[in-house]
Every structure is written in structure tokens, then in C-alpha cells.
Amino acid sequence: MNKFKRTLITTALPYANGPIHIGHLAGVYVPADIYARYLRLKNEEVLLIGGSDEHGVPITLKAKNEGITPQDVVDKFHGIIKKSFQEFGISFDVYSRTSADIHHETASDFFKKLYDDGKFIEKTSEQYYDEENKQFLADRYITGICPKCGFDKAYGDQCESCGTSLSPTELINPTSMISGNQPVLKETKHWYLPLDQYEPWLKEWILEGHKEWKPNVYGQVKSWIDSGLQPRAVTRDLNWGVPVPIEGVDGKVLYVWFDAPIGYISATKELTADWEKYWKDPETRMLHFIGKDNIVFHCIIFPAMLKAEGSYNLPENVPANEFLNLENDKISTSRNWAVWLHEYLEDFPGKEDVLKYVLTANAPETKDNDFTWKDFQTRNNSELVAVLGNFVNRALVLTQKYYEGVVPERGELADYDKKTLTSISKIKAEVEKSIDSFRIRESLKNAMDLARLGNKYLADEEPWKVIKTDAERVKTIMNISLQITANLTICLEPFLPFSMNKLRDFLNLEKLDWNFLGDTELLKPGHKTNKPELLFEKIEDKVIEAQLQKLQATKKANELTEAVATPAKENIEFDDFGKMDIRVGTIIEAEKVAKTKKLLKILIDTGIDKRVVVSGIAEYYKPEDLVGKQVSVLVNLATKKLRGIESQGMILCAENADGSLSIVEPDSKVKNGSEIK
């Protein structure tokens, strides 16, 4: 017996600095929509909540680069995103935005409640500050060398090469992404949510109380908790966002990670005055549909916020998905390597369900998956057209041909007829079992088994042959085929809503709820069907080739962009350059650093001593090929420990357009210790 009276489904808020792409759809919005439609078909009370995340540094930077206001940026992309979702058929009950007044009020009230209850700790700390632009830097706008693996484009919060979580002060040679300058440390005061205080409760609530969560979710949460949680700032120095609601505090806003999930609450408030029953009634079940990059926020941080506030429900499940790649390459908005939803809707009018089907059939539920245009074409042609469309078309066309579209009355059932009709209820049970466990990909396969059942039944019974010898038997065959077709309109409704609406029109059938699935007399004898059309159409090679050419053009454009040298940094004084002591040295020994992909431990004769330098060049040079090679070494760089090894300098390298590194070396033999000036 379900202990919940209703379900609140939230979907990760897409960031309003760009459109929606297929990675977003596959990871979050398609599975959430399928689940919500399924519950509605079962006549359950459900809300599907969405909205745009419109605060944070990337918005301000985009506005600055384009010479417009942050509000202009979010207005533009919120409009594009919302329109795309509507046209694609994501059935939000409300799609809100975090720049709305109701959100600012809700987020402010939430912060104030925790502040007044003493749930925050106040700390003054040193944070990186860009002196040229006169602003503190978000972690993501500081890059440098990862102290763990040596990757030279690590962000201030994480290294995307080795996956290690970082703080900006851990980076070697930190650089501001805004100005290109080295930032300075400057004192600032902020409020922190002491996550460490919630660690015992989180262990009990999640690790003991929610072992049924998906392994990828449970595993990531356990890793975070086992590593030890630390206080996390809930405010930041910025002028775009929800102002910190404390008297006398200016120039600070709520951190976007703190205010964004509160957007679920404010969106519900926008929808209904009765919002509290969805957030505070224990008979409401809350589900968060998200991608894997949001697991920590929805399984640790937001629950800790709700626990601290004290009156809200906690999520019952967080069925997060992994990432979807595109043509064997990671989707990247900055490189325009994506299939954008609004462009797909223009290029493939009327084929919303085709994309939904392919993204669901290939959903990255347990591991990262890959979208390819060839697979898109194959699944459309060999599954939607050849299986589902073929069965439906044959059943309806033969009914038109033999009975002028009128449902015939069936006679005595053969054993195969009974077995076929019984299979409908079995398929229903399998679909329910899968979808109730958030195995959406599997549930689609099970639902398509109903079309496969119909195809096999018609192929085995061959009414086009039997009509010549036993017309009465054909009436039974066609009646059963039509009952399967009618059941398809229910079984596939959550997955292919546009197509099932068309199929109901063909059948002249009203929309039926989930309880009718399995009924073998949905179409009564004498019921008049309408003239059918093709439910799906083949996608030709030239259409797919056009999409592949578009991606190829993107790849070439990226290569050209990457080939252009980055702008020169601001001028420095000669004395600043003179402080660097760069010498020619010869590599004596080299070996890979254990458990790393990029690091080499190198012993160099610098002419003034023999010293160890740890360098991130293992992907480009074999240790044995380096011995005897002369290199340029910065010898007066402060010692830094990398993977437990004291690194006493840095080898100078040039970065190529493809990101690879080449050692800067003299073109002829030079005495070790020679200075480079």
C-alpha cells in the first residue's frame, strides 16, 4: 500500500546562459516527464516542477562580454528554454525562474530563518581577488595546475582531469579567467552552512535509510561523507543574485548553490497557494530528477538545508543519471558540441517523440552513454517504423480493407489467441515494475514488447492469407489486433505522447487511464475507426548526413579557434622578469609517478645542483625518451609537494593548439646551468 497521497517531482534548474541540449534532456527532463505522465495516467496527484537557474558569475560574465545586463541574458535564454520545453512536450505544471520576485522573497526568508536560528557560522577568510576588475573570484573562474595530477587547466573547485575536489588556494600558479592576471588574497566575511555538524545524521538518513537508491547515487554520496564534510559558504561577494538579507551587508548575495534548490519551493508557491502540502505534508513524496553533477547538492547539501530549517519534507529518492556524450565526444556548450533542442525542433518538425524515444532507449542510467546520429536513424527506422508503426498500420489498414474501418466481432478464441491476450497484462506488470524502480530505459523496452507482441501475432496468423479460406477466423484475428493497438495508446502514452494522441485519433478512441491497460475489450464490435496515416516515417541517409556535416563544421571551427594564439597578458616590468632564474639542465632520470596519468618524477642536473622536478608531461613523453634531453628549468620557484614528492622547480613547455605539451629545449648542446635571459 502506497503510504503517500501525492508526489512532488523536481527537475534540475537549467542554467540560463545557453539553450537546452540532448544531454540535459536524457539526464533529467525526459525521464522526469515520463514518470510524471505515468503517475497522472494512474490518476495519482503529482506536480512536475521546473525553472531556470538565473544567478551566478557566468551570467555576469556573459553580460559583460556582450555589453548587456545580466537580466537581459537570463530573459533571453529563459525564453528560449521555456519555449523549447513546451514545444517538446515536457509537461511541467509550472516552469519558473530564480530572478522572479517570489523566488527572491522565498530564498531570503529561508536564509533569514536559518540565520535567526543560529544555523550558520560566520567566518572571515582570505579569498582570491582580481585587482584589475575589482571583484572576488568564484572558484570556477580561477584556473591553475592541479596539485594532485599536474593538469594545467584545473578549476578552483575541481580538477576535471583527475576529478579531485580542490580549493583555489591549492592550485599552483592560480590565474584569473577574467583578466588573465594572478589574483591576490583579500579578506572577506561570509556565512557558512556547517555540513560537518550534519554528517552523523546524513550517515543515518542516507547510508542506513536509503540503501535502495541507485548505486551511482548511493556510491557518490557515501564517498563524500566518508571523506568528511566541511562547512560550505552560503554567501558570496557579487552584485547579481539574491541580496543577503542582513542589515548593513552590501555587495553580497546568496551563493547560487544555496538559492537554486529553493527555486523548487518558490516555483510551487507560484503555482498554488496550497504549496505547503507539497513541501511539508509527510504524505507527500518528493523526488529529485537530476544529472550526476548535481548529486552532492540534492543528496547532501539541500537535505541539510531542509533539516536545518526543520519544517520541510526530505527527498524520498534522487534517481540521478550519468552523462550523455555526442558522437564519442563529451558534450560541451563552450565548444558548441551539442545537439540543441530548439534547433532539433526546427530540423525535425513533428518528430518530438522520435528524439524522446532514442534518448530513453539509450538513457545514461548507470553509466555514460553515447548519442550518434546513425543510432538515431537506426532506432527510428528499425524500431519505431518497422516494429510499432508497421504493426499499427497493418492492423488499421486491414480493418479498413476488410470491414470499412468497423471493429469486427470475434468468435471462439484459440489457445494462441488467449495466450496473446493474457500477455498484455503481463507486459503491463513488467512496465510498472521497471518504471516504479526508476528503470525508465527498461520500462520503454517492456512497453515496446506490446508492439512486438502484435507484430508476431499478425505475422503468425497471416490474416491476408486466411481471409481466402476462413473469413470468420479473420474477424477474431483483427479484433485481437485492434485490442492490442488500443492498449498501446495507454502503454506508450508516457513515452510517446504526441504519437499516441495521433493513434487515438486513428482509432477514434478517447484517452484512457492506466487502469484500462490489459483490458481486452477496449474497442467494442461495431466501433468505427478513422482512416489511418503512417504513425512514423523513415529518416533518410541525406537527413542524417546533414546533421553530421553540421557537427563536422563545428569541429573545424573549434580547431581554427584553438589554433589562434591566446592574447598577450598585461605588460610587466623588467625587474619582474629578472626575478625568474631559468637555467638549462639535463635530465638524468625519469619515471612515472604511481597512480597518476600525467605526472613524471624527473631528476635534472641544473649545473648548480641535481634536483627533482615533478612535471605533468607523462601523456606526451616516455620516461626513457627524456633521459639525456636538455630542458629549460625555472629553478627559483617555491618548492611544492605533488603526490608526496617535493618538486623543486618547473620545466618550461609550450602548449599546442590541441592541448598537448612540447618541452622548450635548446637546438644545440648547452652547458648545464646556463642562464636563459
Characterise the protein shown here:
- This protein has 4 domains: 6-112 and 254-326, HUPs (Rossmann fold, 3-Layer(aba) Sandwich); 120-237, Methionyl-trna Synthetase, domain 2 (Beta Complex); 372-516, Orthogonal Bundle (Isoleucyl-tRNA Synthetase, Domain 1); 574-663, Beta Barrel (OB fold (Dihydrolipoamide Acetyltransferase, E2P)), CATH 2.40.50.140.
- With 677 residues, the chain is an alpha+beta fold.
- The N and C termini lie far apart (79 Å).
- The strands form 8 sheets. The protein has a 5-stranded antiparallel β-sheet. A 4-stranded parallel β-sheet has the order 3-2-1-13.
- It is globular and about 100 Å long.
- α13 (415-436) packs antiparallel against α14, α14 (440-461) runs antiparallel to α16 (471-491) and α16 runs antiparallel to α17.
- It contains 20 helices and 24 strands.
Question: Which features would summarize this protein structure in a list?
Answer:
single chain, 677 residues, alpha+beta, Methionyl-trna Synthetase, domain 2, Isoleucyl-tRNA Synthetase, Domain 1, 4-stranded parallel β-sheet, 20 helices, 24 strands
Q: CATH fold name of the largest domain, please?
A: Rossmann fold
- What is the strand tally? 24
Please report the number of helical segments: 20
Indicate the CATH architecture of the largest domain.
3-Layer(aba) Sandwich
Q: For this structure, what is the CATH class of the largest domain?
A: Alpha Beta
CATH homologous superfamily name of the largest domain? HUPs
Structural class of the helices, strands and pairings?
alpha+beta
Whole-number tally of structural domains: 4
Beta-strand content: 15-25%
The pLDDT mean sits at 93
How would a textbook summarize the main sheet?
Answer: 5 strands, antiparallel
Low-pLDDT parts are none
Strands across the major sheet, in which order?
A: 18-17-16-19-22
| Gap from first CA to last CA | 79 Å
Shape: globular
Share in helix: 40-55%
Radius of gyration, in Å, reads 30 Å
